Structures are given as C-alpha cells and as structure tokens.
Amino acid sequence: MHLSDEFQESPVLDGFSHLADITDPLHILMSLTNLITAMALVLCTLLLGNLDKNETISQLPLLITLSISLAMLVGLIIEYLLKENKELVRGIRSQIKYFQVIIFFWMWVLWGLNRTSYFDFSEWSFMIIISVSLQTTFFILVVYHRIKLGRIEINQTSLLNRVKSTSKNIQTTLTGTEIEEIRIISTKINNQLLTFMGFITAGFLTALMLNIVNLDSGLITSFTTSIISIDIALLFSNIVSKQKIL
C-alpha cells in the first residue's frame, strides 16, 4: 500500500489514540462495546425498575443506571443524526473519554452488586458480563496502543505526542504515513490478542473435554461468556476493518 506524506485532516478520536473510522479495528471494537453496553444499561434499567417497584432494593442504583443510559442513548442518537455536522460531533466526542470511564466503573459496580446477590438479574446477567469483558479488553488495548505509539519517533517527536496534539486545539495535522502507522499498530494489536484468545479458548475447551472444569460452576460460566464475547468482538473488528481497507 502506498503511503502518502501529504498532511490530512486528523481522524483521531479525541481522548484516544486510535483512528475514528471503521478501518481501525480499535474503533470498531469501541463502537461494538458501546452498542452492547447501551443495550445492557437499558436492560438493567428495566430490571432495576421492576425490583424498585417491588421495593426490594434502594432507588440509587436505578437512578444512576437510568441517568447513564439516557445520556449514552442521547449521545449516540445525536451523533448519528448529526454526523454531517463535524464540529458538533467533535464536541460530543470530546466528552467521550470521561463518559467512557464513568460507564466502565458503573458496569463493574453492577456486576459486583449482582455477583454479591444485592439484586438478581438471573438469566440476563450475561449481558453485564459481556459488557464488562469488552470494556475491560478495550481499555487494556487502548493503553497498550498508546505505549506502542510512544515508542515510534517521527522527526524526533513520538507519534503519541503527535496524536495528542491533534486533540488539544493545536493546529496539528497528521501525514498519511502517520495515519497509516496508527492503523497498522491497531491491526497488529487486535491480531495479537485474537491469536492469544485463540490459545485461551483452545485450552479451555480441552479442559472441558477432560472434565478439568465444569460449566455448572458460576465462575466458569462467567469465564466462558467472557472469552466467547471477546473472541467474537475481536474477530468482528478484524473482518470489518479489512473489508473497508480493501
């Protein structure tokens, strides 16, 4: 692939180091994670509403979950409907990094409350497990991605600093070569984790066939849900990004 050195409009998502387009597997993973998390939050809101109606729990978890759900849904809808208004979308995306952290911690809180039987989501608890698994995976990959970018120097400046400067109202644009480098790193990281998860999945299946582990255990069931969801999400991100690059 020919790499152009011409400067381009920087498609880096504010607060993150990956490209804000569907040729970057990290961006696809984030979009998929947000969609599943939004579904999980709406479902949790409905379930918590029923529990609150029966006066079996405090109203606080319901109010927090409802607020986060509404904010997330409104943000997703506005971004989709006004996607042609780049300035408005940029303003919405500038707050994503903070909101992502809030959602991340709150989903872990919901998982913990459900796990400790403060409330029981019964058969729908797998949605929380999937959301937490994907969010955790995404944040780990983001940190690793930033570390990799920090190790690449272009004209005596790290690529990570170049990316950061595009998100701080500094008149900085990335070259085609730099943009392609970011995309390549994302793809490599995605593929590396996909390969690693393949070994984990194969080992887990072997343990099941040898009766070393038992799916009757709640922890084993949760672990199974996690690895399957991560495998599918990474594979989906990989396939979609390749289709758009070709």
SSE layout and pairing:
Blueprint: E1 7-8, H1 25-53, H2 59-81, H3 86-93, H4 96-115, H5 125-150, E2 153-154, E3 157-158, H6 159-165, E4 174-175, H7 176-209, H8 218-245
Antiparallel strand pairs: 1-4, 2-3
Helix pairs in contact: 1-2, 1-5, 1-8, 2-4, 4-5, 5-7, 5-8, 7-8
Number of domains: 1
Helix/strand/pairing category? mainly alpha
Q: Helicity range of the residues?
A: over 70%
How many strand elements?
4
How would the global form be characterised? globular
What is the terminal-to-terminal distance?
10 Å
Rg for CA atoms:
20 Å
Calculate the mean pLDDT score and round it. 80
- Strand percentage lies at under 5%
Number of helices: 8
**Low-confidence runs (pLDDT<50, min 5 residues)?**
none
What is the H/E string?
EHHHHHEEHEHH
The order of strands across the largest sheet is 1-4
Major sheet:
2 strands, antiparallel
What does this structure look like?
With 246 residues, the protein is mostly helical. The protein has one domain. It is built from eight helices and four strands, in the order βαααααββαβαα. Strands 1-4 form a two-stranded antiparallel sheet. A two-stranded antiparallel sheet has the order 2-3. A hairpin with a 2-residue loop joins strand 2 (153-154) and strand 3. The longest helix has 34 residues, at 176-209. The chain starts with 6 loop residues before the first strand and ends with a helix. The model has no long low-confidence stretch (mean pLDDT 80).
